[in-house]
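Field log, afternoon session.

UNIT: design team B
ACTIVITY: writing a sequence onto a fixed backbone
BACKBONE:
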């Protein structure tokens, strides 16, 4: 009886420490007022094959928050067999009729045929930005393709934009900020999952670029060229667990 009770306690502790953070969704709220008066929902790192947040739960969140735009900052899935599961989430997003823009991440490029993902995004009306920009009311939205996959082309991405007008950037790997020489007003990225496991010296053992090596792997930061935010992501990569790092979506108030 004692052994059974001890095992139950250990299982409960394990669930609370490693599984609950993947289900206990946190809405981060970032105030960075630059005069646009727009509210943006950022969803990053779905990793749909390991996502424990349901489409209905995300839908209820969107209905409550009523963002002006939805920006998805990469890593939908690296498994083509997971595209049917992703379909349910994209179908849900399309029902809200909120302008949605996206970039690809390193895991997306690990698919054998990333074109299938691209076509699925296009089918549901999601605008995919691959080193290009679009003019939206009051600002340029720039989508920089994935930096760690070698897909970024900064000169092409900024082409046609002007520093005199607000420039908002979405990208996957935040390490690209160290390469950007242009000025920008705000940048949203993901990729690093806020470590996913809040362990000391994590990025000394797993190199993920210069930024995390400097201790910059989540939250709001500023460089000489602009301010950027790194999301902790909503899904998991590798092991489908988190430790002291909750799944996140982010509301940005600009």
């Amino acid at each position: 009886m004692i052994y059974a009770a001890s095992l139950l306690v250990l299982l409960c502790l394990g669930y609370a420490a490693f599984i609950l953070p993947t289900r206990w969704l946190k809405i981060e709220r970032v105030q960075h007022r630059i005069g646009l008066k727009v509210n943006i929902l950022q969803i990053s790192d779905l990793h749909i094959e390991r996502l424990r947040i349901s489409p209905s739960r995300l839908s209820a969140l969107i209905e409550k928050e009523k963002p002006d735009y939805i920006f998805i900052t990469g890593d939908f899935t690296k498994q083509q067999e997971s595209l049917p599961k992703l379909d349910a989430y994209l179908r849900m997003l399309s029902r809200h009729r909120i302008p949605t823009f996206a970039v690809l991440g390193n895991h997306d490029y690990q698919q054998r045929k990333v074109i299938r993902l691209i076509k699925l995004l296009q089918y549901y009306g999601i605008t995919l930005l691959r080193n290009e920009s679009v003019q939206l009311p009051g600002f340029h939205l720039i989508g920089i393709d994935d930096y760690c996959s070698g897909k970024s082309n900064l000169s092409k991405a900024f082409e046609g934009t002007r520093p005199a007008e607000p420039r908002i950037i979405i990208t996957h790997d935040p390490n690209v900020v160290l390469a950007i020489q242009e000025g920008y007003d705000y940048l949203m990225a993901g990729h690093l999952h806020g470590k996913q496991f809040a362990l000391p010296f994590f990025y000394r053992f797993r190199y993920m670029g210069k930024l995390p090596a400097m201790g910059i792997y989540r939250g709001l930061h500023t460089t000489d060229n602009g301010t950027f935010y790194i999301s902790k992501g909503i899904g998991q990569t590798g092991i489908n667990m988190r430790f002291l790092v909750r799944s996140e979506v982010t509301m940005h108030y600009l």
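LOG NOTE: The longest strand covers residues 26-31.
NEXT ACTIVITY: expression trials, pending approval
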